[in-house]
Design a protein that fits this description.
The chain has 220 residues and is of the alpha/beta class. The chain contains seven helices and eleven strands. The strands form two sheets. It has a six-stranded parallel beta sheet, with helices on both faces. Helix 5 links the parallel strand 5 and strand 6. The radius of gyration is 19 Å and the shape is elongated.
Length: 220
Amino acid sequence: MVIVIVGGGKLGFDLAQTMMERKYDVRLIEKNKLKCMDLANQLDAEVICGDGTEIEILAEAGAKNCDSFIAVTGSDQDNLVATQLAKKEFGAKKVIVRANNPANMEALRTLGTDIVVSSTEIITKLIEQEVDFAEMHMLATLNKGRASICTMILPDRSAWDGHPLKDIDLPSGSLVISILRDEAMMIPNGYTVLHSGDELVAVCENDNRKKLIKLFGEKR
């Protein structure tokens, strides 16, 4: 698995080190020359000195069709530019961005980033998930990253189309807290009937997030 990381700060360093311990092919981009030298001495990974918002540097790092592209610089603007280039110009399979300012999370998500997070542990888990998290979007983290508020849309021909919530055996630690249907939001109860196309907002423990996706992704 090829992982390209933009930003050699503490989070970038920790991610690179963690991914290398898992035997992944890691390429780290950092534009500060002194920091690059320090990173190269500490990490047995390819360290590219340059600006991660420049196409030539991303190409040199092997961003084309990489398995995961992660932007974790201290600038949300740089992170956004880097991830947009990775996705649109290089076809990165999974694009993850760090939001330094929580107020920018929705903007980063709206502007094309697959996943917006801020925790090393969460990013590591996202990279290793077998489930494609394009089906689910994280809105916020809870309990120091051990739980999340997530949203997903019931697919066409959903197995739960026409069924009330009380008929669904949700994973432990999961709760559907709102439903958006035809631009109208409702707070559900056990008798609320689901329909394909509903956007569900749920709280769930991260260990059970994959189960929740599989459950609501079932089709007839």
